[in-house]
Amino acid sequence: RATTEDLHERIRAAKATLGEKLVILGHFYQREEIIAHADFVGDSFQLANASLTRPEAEAIVFCGVHFMAETADMLSEPDQAVILPNLAAGCSMADMADIDQVEECWEQLMEVYRDTTDSSPDGLQPVIPVTYMNSSAALKGFCGRNGGIVCTSSNAATVLEWAFERGQRVLFFPDQHLGRNTAKAMGISLDRMPMWNPNKPLGGNDEQALLDAQVVLWHGFCSVHRRFTVAQVEQARAEHPGVRVIVHPECPMPVVDAADESGSTDYITKAIAAATEPTTFAIGTEINLVQRLAAEYPQHTIFCLDPVVCPCSTMYRIHPGYLAWVLESLVAGEVVNRISVPADVAEPARIALERMLAAKP
Ligand code: 13P
Ligand code: SF4
Where does [4Fe-4S] cluster bind (predicted)? Predict the structure, then answer.
């Protein structure tokens, strides 16, 4: 059995041999043993951009989850191989919206909205599909084909504004919480955000609510961020007077409302970096990021709102053993665990991704 130090040594040696041919991307939620080897560390938006910055690299090893590697494959050059060290690193939220269910929902919405195109004074589309980055390439392709766009947690409000310039309503999937929290912060009232229920029989969703909607939400959620509660926020405030509570917008709305601020992993990182006075931060996001920030900023007190350790179990599936294996395979001239999105899916998905990258804040 290889020791951790052996694995690090093997990774370093393979990296040195591959040189400029290789780039390793690491999401903020990766464990430290992986982050130590990453060339770029960031949130899902930054890593999508990072995929564009090294066109000369032959291999992009993506230490994150499946949908992120798919995105990197679609944004990178066709001859670059995107590799996910462990193919079992998925995302339970992304799995909550499958393409068949979304197509079915879309068909029913088109039926409900059939008369509203003509009634729009500006010729706006009845509804614009917006998918969170945390979704399969097939859903991004669906958005590309239907006038829609992708968003991440760092640009969701900008993207919703983009969508409202083109449509009367938005269908937002898969994360109900990011959709609700973002729309609420933009002043949209909760009674104009019905949730689509894919389990209701044909015509079972409330037609009037769908007609009155500004944002139709999907039922998905993140199993990590769903764990945070208002009681935890209250406890942090009671135990640490003056604490600054920052949570990720994938948390349920009452938690976001109880916090002082909410924002993407990049927002959280920058907020802590910008604090000039010693501050106590209670953070509502994945534990690997929180612990790294606590170690990086010893002048502050930084802790996770959830006292029971709260990792993303699928991000955690990227173990240094897998990283060593994929890199050594590359040294041996073999590409393993390549993520390759078929052209008929990638083409429209790229359109939705490029709309996002071009949408200005
Ligand atoms: P970011 O968009 O903040 O990187 O978050 C990705 C993610 O998976 C959060 O759960
Ligand atoms: Fe998916 Fe949640 Fe893990 Fe992010 S933290 S990858 S949304 S399960």
Answer: 91, 222, 312
Nearest residue to 125 via CA among 141, 143, 137? 143
- CB-ligand 1 contact for 288 (6 Å cutoff): no
User: In angstroms, what is the span from residue 170 Cα to ligand 1's centroid?
Assistant: 21
Say whether pLDDT at 1 is over 70.
no
Domain boundary among 172, 199, 221: 221
Instruction: Work out which ligand 2 atom sits closest to the CA atom of 286.
Output: 5
pLDDT > 60? residue 118: no
* 100: phi then psi, degrees, rounded to nearest 5: -65, -40
Whole-angstrom distance between the N-terminal and C-terminal Cα of the chain?
A: 50
pLDDT tens column, 220-241 = 999 999 999 999 999 999 999 9
Q: Give domain status of residue 310, yes or no.
A: no
Is residue 278 annotated as involved in ligand binding? no
* Residue 120 reports pLDDT greater than 70: no
What distance in angstroms lies between residue 49's CA and the mean position of ligand 1's atoms? 14
Compute, in angstroms, the gap from residue 251 CA to the centroid of ligand 2: 11
Question: Is the CB–ligand 2 distance for residue 316 below 6 Å?
Answer: no
Tell me, yes or no, whether 249 lies in a domain.
yes
How far apart, in whole angstroms, are the C-alpha atoms of residue 347 and residue 141? 7
What is the Cα–Cα distance from 334 to 2, expressed in whole angstroms? 22
Number of separate domains in the chain: 3
Nearest CA to ligand 1 atom 4: 43
Assess if residue 350 is contained within a domain: no
120 a known binding residue? Answer: no
Q: Can you give the pLDDT at residue 115?
A: 76
User: d(Cα 127, Cα 167) in Å, to the nearest integer?
Assistant: 5
| Average pLDDT over the chain, rounded to an integer | 94
pTM: 0.94
pLDDT at residue 269 tops 80: yes
Ligand nearest to the CA of 66: 2
**What number does the ligand 2 atom closest to the CA of 314 have?**
3
Is residue 349 included in any domain, yes or no? no
Q: What is the ipTM of this complex?
A: 0.96
Q: Ligand 2, residue 94: give the atom nearest the CA.
A: 1
Tens digit of pLDDT for each residue in 323-339?
Answer: 999 999 999 999 999 99
Cα(265) to ligand 1 centroid in Å equals 6
CA–CA separation, 304 and 291 (whole Å)? 8
